[in-house]
Design goal:
Largest sheet: 5 strands, antiparallel
CATH architecture of the largest domain: Sandwich
Helix content: 40-55%
Shape: globular
Structural class: alpha+beta
Number of helices: 10
Number of strands: 11
Radius of gyration: 21 Å
CATH topology of the largest domain: Jelly Rolls
Number of domains: 2
Strand content: 15-25%
Distance between the termini: 46 Å
Order of helices and strands: EEEEEEEEHEEHHEHHHHHHH
Length: about 290
């Protein structure tokens, strides 16, 4: 199993029932989760606030009532764009739908889904049937009433059918899936390095060397994979760090700029305003009120 920051694996709390549902609340603008990927399918149901979600270089502005589908082996990250953001994380290992008796359901749908050969569209909006299914799963998981496992399993089957009929994005061949995973792993070292060293001076030639690519091909592939240029990605990491320090530390603006990788306070302030629409001092003042 990959042992990196970019690759994320979280063990299911109950190994006899491979479903995990929990609520998350975020205060103020900033990252929900950094760029990462995992092998299981995940759903994020938003109940309050607004956020920006990136999935395989595609950006989605989401709000309360939206459901985001994170496919396996899909690079993704999220940013909170509201004072308060509330969502439910729903992790499902569809192998719990497998049975000892192999049938057409298993060979045509469940096995390809487990092997990440089936990819769904990332955003589900204003779909009453799917949202009803998701809400039922949340309610059953929270209540733990007798038979809740059966109810969730039934809802998982129903959710799979609704997604296959209305939100099928593509079906990967074995070679296409191998190429996708290979590209993710090629850039894994680069993204892990950036997450650990974004406060330091970084140049593109250095990053291209890590991926064993020319500067031109590195820049093109990075943007295809992540959804933004390497420079923008580094800026976002630094701004996210500054957001945390503005809310949780007593450092002044110059100290925060330096601690986030900026040597020029004026440049930091201009860039912060570009990303957050307010100056660092205005942001801090608002949070202190």
């Amino acid at each position: 199993m990959p042992n990196t920051i970019l690759y994320h694996y979280k063990k299911m709390p109950d190994q006899t029932f491979l479903v995990d549902i929990f609520e998350r609340k975020y205060q103020g603008p900033g990252p929900i989760f950094n760029q990462h990927w995992h092998e299981h399918l995940q759903f994020i149901y938003f109940t309050a606030g607004k956020a920006l979600i990136s999935c395989n270089a595609r950006l989605f502005q989401v709000t309360a009532g939206d459901l985001v589908v994170i496919n396996g082996n899909e690079l993704h990250y999220g940013e909170n764009h509201s004072p308060v953001l509330v969502c439910y994380m729903i992790r499902i290992d569809f192998s719990f739908l497998l049975s000892n008796q192999v049938d057409s359901c298993q060979t045509k749908y469940i096995t390809p889904l487990i092997q990440n050969q089936i990819s769904f569209k990332n955003l589900v909006r204003n779909d009453r049937d799917i949202l009803h299914c998701v809400k039922k799963m949340i309610t059953e998981y929270s209540s733990h009433d007798i038979g809740y496992e059966l109810a969730i399993k039934a809802s998982a089957y129903e959710l799979m059918v609704l997604l296959l009929r209305g939100y099928l994005d593509r079906v990967y061949s074995e070679k296409e899936l191998e190429a996708l995973i290979r590209n993710i792993k090629r850039f894994q070292r680069v993204l892990d390095f950036l997450d650990n060293h974004y406060r330091e001076p970084i140049n593109i030639d250095q990053l291209a060397g890590m991926a064993n690519l020319s500067k031109y091909h590195f820049c093109r592939m990075f943007k295809q994979l992540v959804g933004k240029s390497a420079g923008d990605y580094i800026h976002q990491l630094r701004i996210n760090n500054a957001l945390t320090l503005l809310q949780e530390s007593e450092l002044n603006i110059t100290e925060i700029a330096l601690a986030s990788g900026f040597n020029d306070t004026n440049y930091f302030s201009r860039l912060f305003k570009k990303y957050q629409k307010v100056s660092p001092s205005q942001f801090r003042k608002t949070k202190l009120q």
